[in-house]
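User: My instructor asked us to take a sequence, write out its structure as tokens, and then describe one feature of it. I'm not sure where to start. Here is the sequence I was given:
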Amino acid sequence: MRTIHKTLAAAGLAAVVVTPALAFVGQSQAVAKPNFQMPFRCGYTATAATFGGHSPANAVDFQKAGITGDPVLASAGGTVSRVANEGSTSYGRWIEINHGGGYTTRYAHLSAQQVRVGQKVALGTQIGKAGATGGVSGPHLHFEERRNGVVLRATLNGRAVPYPGHTPFTSRNKCTGGGGGGNPYTPQKACGSGFAVVDSKALGKAGRTYLLYNKGSGKNCVTTLKSTSLGKKTAASAFLEVKGAKRVTDSGNFAYYAGPVTRSAAGTCVKWGGSVGSQRYTSPFEHCG
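Assistant: Let's start with the prediction itself. The structure tokens for your sequence are:
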């Protein structure tokens, strides 16, 4: 789904340059680039689409079936500097956040805007909802990272977005397990090389259970990461059931995570889930591709 901007001048778009590592304020003070996160909740997976002819060139379109209405989060802390509506052209409903040091981010084609100009937001604050306003061919979230008004090639949690490409990314925005403080483990560390998160569910505030897939091996993996009582062995579990086969469960007392549980499941529906303490989740049979 490509963004079609009809009034680029109104949105203040700029030319593309190479991203420097630091922004300089005055002659002596250097400000590091924020560690921008994917602008969606922890565990959310979407395709980061970049392509020739995109305006501006280094913008990213996050694409996902059913994305309309999904929460859009601040990719770093800052102050809301723009809340605008271009109507049926360009960005449509959009928001800009000033992160200091010349760095800003923009979020466009929103179905709802939930912040005001001058409002201070923290990393992971919900600022709006994804949609299809403005000049677009379909629902998605248009995202930009900028420095001094120039659109940079995006990085998400330190990972460079490929240009051009359609690349799956999984959000680490405000994750309590790994990549953001708290639990030192991530789902990928638990399941191993080659696995990528395809779904996750929160277990209240106690933790989160994750479903991962390895395209190379055709295997699914489930792990449950704790958010509380870290380092102390408490009850947790992870399970994976391939349709037509017996459910496999890892259950017991764990310091950081339960699992991993892995099974071959290419082209087969799976049921998955887990628990931490009294909080638990069981999926229906799904992810059948």
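For the description part of your assignment, you could build on this observation: DSSP finds two helices and 24 strands in the chain. Try explaining in your own words what that tells you about the chain.
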